[in-house]
Amino acid sequence: MEERRFDANGLAILTGVSGLFCIDIDISTKDEKSKRPGIELWEQLVHEHGEPETLRARTGSGGIHLYFKADSPGLKRKRNFQGVKVNGEAYGIDGRAAGGVIFAEPTSYVNGQGELAIYRWETENGPPSYEACREMPVWLTELANNPNGHGHAAAGEEEEETEPVDPDDDMQAITKYTRGSQEVQDLLLRIVIEHAAPKAFANLGRLFAYLYMIECRILATTNETEKSRDQIFFVWNGTSWAQDTSNLVMDVFTSQMGCLLAWYEKQRERCLSTLCAGRPELEGFVVGGVLQSLDSKEVDSKQAKKVKMAVDSCIKELEKTMPSFGKINVQDPADVRKCMHSVVPKLHVKGLLDLFDQDPTVANAQNGLIDLITGALLSHHPQDLCNNQTCKYISGASTRSTARFQTFLMDILPPEAIKWLQMFLGYCLTGETSEELLVIANGLSGANGKSALKGALERAFGSYACPGNKAIFMKPSFKANGSAASSHLMQIRTNRFVSCDESDGVEELHASFLKEASTGGRINARELFCKAQSYVPQYKLFLFTNYRPHFPSDDTALIRRMVLMMFNYTFKTPDKLDANNEWHKPIDVSLKPYFESDEGAADTLDFCVRGAIMYYAEKELAPSSKVLSPIPKAFMAAVDEYAEENDKLQAFIDEACTTKGANLSVAKSDFVEAFTTFLYAGGHDVTLAGDGLARAMCLKGFSQKPPGGGNNPMIRTLDGKKRGRGFFGIRLKTDEELMEAAKKDPDPKQPDTT
């Protein structure tokens, strides 16, 4: 809920995150010996180049604010600067960009002379707007790029911080005010005075809360599902919101309290010195607001008493005009916590954990926000609420002559599938889940490129990628309690690419969860000792394995979601490479270090971003269709083979049954016994011959009802002793038939995969 206050009459603009670069021209300076008024240089520049046409404002002290677009052509400077130097002379012209704050109308304050100073917009065509901000002219960009007059910065060169930074003020939220222009310090002083009172912990906390809200660099929340509901802080580091796990917020708050209180005490000393200077009886006895020791030999008791009374009067007047905060000890955790209690409510955002990384069409990179629809690199902004981050994004990195990621893909997978794979990897970078796909990367042996692909994607995707717990992919060997903690699902809630390495060949895919997670619906999960909550997953699941896990052969919904990428090649060192083996290729030992490097990561990321652009372009043409369907024939054929391999029932029917002939039938008890023996001999799951057998047989066309709608479904067993239900249209082969089939079709030799 928005709080309305009678004294909340200020407006602060964050220049950098608002896409603005503001030129601040002072008409006077505190020390004209070291810095001349900026208006002197500005009038010379305007006379030479003309007045820039852009949004303009008048400051409380009569100075000028000129608002330009931060992305103006040729403007390479992204940070603040204080003062410019021309021909050896320093002038009061400042720049406010990334990390900068500019006050604007209707802000007002009382200056040092007790006069009301007001900020005013100087607009002729309606209220101020971003559209009114123009691009900075070339002559002014040259000045902004080189405020110290040392020549132009090279393109892409990192700029050094030019603002003085207090070593105890990590976030600079205080020094930009305490060391700002005179009008900024006057405004800060007025606000501090309004909040000052002895031991006013709450007032001091509220003061910092206002400053932090202007900064937009700290947010607080609680995990509503936790019993403790402790405060969780997130800090905007300039590129993303990072959770404070090292007590950074408290440490910085402590140092900033000390910084502000020390500055305020200096202002009080100056005020006291001014008050004492106005008392003739204190001349020579008070220096810098400090009463000098009175020598009884030089000063009689009557004069000493008069001096002390005058000093006490000045101190009382000081307390009225500039009250003290008293003895607040910034080194005492108890005092800091008392102030912090008033800060947290102003910074609290309910449900913040559910708001991070919710825009599926963007990805947060180290150097900006990637629009995955257009490929444009946008400026970072706190309001985007990005918690994850990819590597640095360089548009066109994958098309350079030195790029290797696409060539690598063509070396390990069918070349005709690369375009589809690029769109799929771009889809993985997005938060979309509408394609309903589960990818299994499978090789016949090691050294086939799977790990290199996985490493390249994880390096490029950064924290958007995450290794998943095996319980996500593999069915647990025990029946889990539905209300049990599922931390492995909470861990991946904001990830977009979740992978798992290797299965042991005897495990079974966790079909129910894999289908649920790939559908795009809400998933219920909870942390240990927390309440259950639900979220919509953005992650795409990717299993890398040399041993294919089993799955129910009649689960058509799971099969429909599968993409099986076969890594058939084996990469060998020169001494083990068989030139006559078509599945052998020479290994490139420089590939892994390349993908781990910044250049390789940028190559991989750009390839995927281009895939995302292709994906969204196709999606725009047919919004309701599945863009990635159909999957490449090579991948689909592998899925069909995989499904057939897992169909143990069909394998048993082909080996031990016949479906040719009339009036065929088999008792269920005989069929189950023979099928169980077949499964046991092959080391397969014997539960396949259990409760789900009748459904599986029905799907294959073998009904438990007689053909033609007969009324007698009972079938006699092979030993002739019993009658029971069974299956029609099929019978077990006799021993003679099995022996004859074995003679005609001996076991084929297995191919050598070494």
From TrEMBL:
Keyword Nucleotide-binding: yes
Domain SF3 helicase residue range list: 416-582
A molecular function GO annotation: ATP binding
Top-level taxonomic group: Eukaryota
Amino acid composition bias (Acidic residues), ranges on this chain: 156-168
Keywords, ordered alphabetically: ATP-binding, Hydrolase, Nucleotide-binding
PROSITE patterns, per the entry: SF3_HELICASE_1
Annotated region described as Disordered, given as residue ranges: 147-168
Nucleotide-binding among keywords: yes
Protein name: SF3 helicase domain-containing protein
Upper lineage: Eukaryota, Viridiplantae, Streptophyta, Klebsormidiophyceae, Klebsormidiales
